[in-house]
């Protein structure tokens, strides 16, 4: 699987009821757990003081990432995404040793 750095900003549409927000957030937590179990979601961070998240995601390719991984998130309709495909760096201390 390839790795992707994904920056996510979620904006709740004006007029959305709190019940709908709570329902989607609960479903999002469940789905994130499922994606972590399959290896698609490797890590997730929230920058201090910000309402966005940065994650390390895995998928076969960018199309699969958008359609079968990120596209399955309950909050996806409210998200803006910035996806950066990653590749191993030769000096990565956790990468393969030559």
Biggest β-sheet, characterized?
A: 4 strands, antiparallel
Count helical runs: 2
List unreliable stretches of 5+ residues.
Answer: none
Oligomer: single chain
> By helix and strand content, what is the structural category?
alpha+beta
What is the beta-strand fraction? 25-35%
Cα distance, first to last residue? 21 Å
Helix content class: 25-40%
Which strand order do you get reading across the main beta sheet?
A: 2-3-1-4
CA radius of gyration: 15 Å
Count all strands and give the number. Answer: 4
Overall geometric form = elongated
Q: Helices and strands, in N-to-C order?
A: EHEEHE
Q: What is the mean predicted local confidence, pLDDT?
A: 95
Would you summarize the structure shown here?
The chain is an alpha+beta fold and 98 residues long. It is 29% helix and 31% strand. It has two helices and four strands.
Give a structural overview.
By secondary structure, this protein is of the alpha+beta class. It has two helices and four strands. Strands 2-3-1-4 form a four-stranded antiparallel beta sheet. A hairpin with a 6-residue loop joins strand 2 (41-45) and strand 3 (52-59). The longest helix is centred in the N-terminal third of the chain and has 20 residues, at 18-37. It is elongated, with a radius of gyration of 15 Å.
Primary descriptors:
single chain; 98 residues; 4-stranded antiparallel beta sheet; 2 helices; elongated
């Amino acid at each position: 699987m390839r790795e992707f750095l994904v920056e996510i900003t979620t904006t709740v549409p004006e007029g959305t009821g709190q019940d709908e927000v709570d329902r989607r957030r609960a479903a999002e937590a469940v789905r994130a757990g499922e994606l972590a179990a399959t290896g698609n979601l490797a890590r997730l961070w929230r920058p201090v003081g910000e309402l966005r998240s940065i994650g390390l995601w895995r998928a076969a390719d960018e199309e699969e990432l958008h359609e079968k991984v990120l596209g399955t998130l309950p909050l996806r309709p409210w998200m803006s995404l910035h996806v950066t495909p990653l590749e191993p760096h030769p000096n990565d201390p956790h990468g393969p040793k030559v």
